[in-house]
Every structure is written in structure tokens, then in C-alpha cells.
Amino acid sequence: MSKIIKKEINKLMKKENKIINKKRSKIIKDKLDPVSEKIEEKIPEKLKGTLESAFYNAFKIVFQKGSKYIEKLYDKEKLKLDHDINNYSLNKRMTRKSLKLLDSQGKKSNLINSAISTIEGVGLGVLGIGIPDIPLFISMILKTVYEIALSYGFSYEEDNEKIYILNLINVALTSEDEKLIYSEKLNDIERKITLGLELENLLDEEIKETSRVLSNNLLIAKFIQGLPIVGVLGGITNYQYLTKVSKYARIKYKKRYLTKY
Fold first, then answer.
1. What top-level branch of life does the organism fall under (predicted)?
2. How far is CA 80 from CA 96, 102, 123, 151, 251, in A?
3. Are 214 and 173 contacting, i.e. CB atoms less than 8 angstroms apart?
4. Mean pLDDT of 20-26
């Protein structure tokens, strides 16, 4: 492994550790958490179940039937070709410039997807629509991760990779102790995939788990988004969560790619 690769992997590990070990600020815990708890108390119990089911169904639809439609939103073959060219360049001559070329496509797609997700979320928020935008939201998250995966030479069709993606989302959108638990689980999944070992995880159970994570984290935002005009505030969370997922996905996929050397 070259010095450039080692240095880059160390940088990625520092970025990952910063995300994994990030603590919630005292202001959020002392000021915002009590407010969130009061809002959550007013949310009907039925809505919580509806939200979790909506996420579950959205993942099922996209995984089973939706990938071919998502792929119409980007040029899959071009992304694969760009990776092959960049990979060849990296193998021929290892430089910081060739490493940066690997990042360019993933960052570009993130900007576009974040903008679309924000417009979609805010637009529906103005209308007072919170739950129906979930399939669109899930599609944008998966589209972003798919493009990042392709830009680093990884497929996403196999169940193992879908399980990897679901747990990547879990890490990105949880905090503190829960984030650490999912991080360890994700690393174990990655290790088994790399070694060609069979995963014991069931895709359907992983979908349920990620649906629970998303439901818990977006419950208040989606409730607010269901209120006309005020819903704009809830809609903006689409951008925030998509940014968290894309940032973490770029770190994980790039590190997976570089550790092959």
C-alpha cells in the first residue's frame, strides 16, 4: 500500500471517527429535547405506526421494483465507465489528483439530489403534506447512495449490499450510543462482504430496523411538515438528513475502495 493511500485512509478514518463519536450539544439536550418531547406527546400514536409502515413499504417498493426507475434519473453506465477510467488512472499513477477524480462524481450527484430533496420536502410542507413524500424521500436517499457506490466501483443489486446500505443509513441518522452500535454492526457486515462470507442478516428484518430508525428520527419533522405553511420547517429536514447520509456514504465507500490496494 502506497504512502498516498495510507495517508488518505487515515484521513477518512479521522473523519469517520469524528462522525461516530460526535456528542449532542448541551443546548440541544437542555433546551430542544424538552420541546421535542412536548411535541411528541401531542403526536397521535397511530401516526407513529403509520410513519414506520410508510418507510417500510417505501424501502420494499424501491428495493423490489424501484431501482430500475431510480436508474432512469442518472446514467448508470456512464458512472461505471467514469469509475473504470479513474480506476485505471489511479492504478497507472497514484497521485492526489487521481484520488480527487474519484470523489468528483459523488459530490456532484449529492448537490443535485440535496437540492431536489429540499424542494420536494419544502414544497409538500407548504401544502401540509408529510407522509406521502416518504417514497420520494427514500428514493432520493437511495439514488444518492447508489451513485456514490457506483463512483467507487461497487454494485448495489445484491441483498448483502442492500443490507450494507440500510445499516449505513442507520449510522448516519442516529446519535451517540446508538450510532456506535450501528457502526460496529456495519463494520462487521463490511468485513464479511469483503471476505465473501455469508451474512446471517435477513433483508426484511433490516428494512424494518431502518424504518424504525427513520421513523424515530423524523417523527416530529414529518408531523410538523403535515401542518400547512409551518410544514416548510419540517420539509427542510429532508436536506439535512440526505446530507448526513451522503457525507457518511462517501467516507465508507471510498475507504472500502482504497483498502483493496
1. Bacteria
2. 21, 11, 33, 7, 19
3. yes
4. 77
Length of the chain counted residue by residue: 261
pLDDT digits (tens, 9 = 90+) for 142-181: 999 999 999 999 999 999 999 999 999 999 999 889 999 9
Share of the chain above pLDDT 90, in %: 42
Q: Taking the model in full, what pTM does it have?
A: 0.83
DSSP state of 43: S
How remote is the C-alpha of 111 from its chain's centroid? 14
Nearest in space to 12 (alpha carbons), one of 249, 243, 260: 249
- The secondary structure of residue 156, as a DSSP letter, is -
Whole-angstrom distance, CA of residue 149 vs CA of residue 155: 7
User: How far is Cα 17 from Cα 14, in angstroms, rounded to an integer?
Assistant: 5
Residue 213, CA distances (Å) to 109, 115, 156, 261 in order: 25, 23, 21, 34
Nearest CA among 130, 148, 149, 144 for reference residue 233: 130
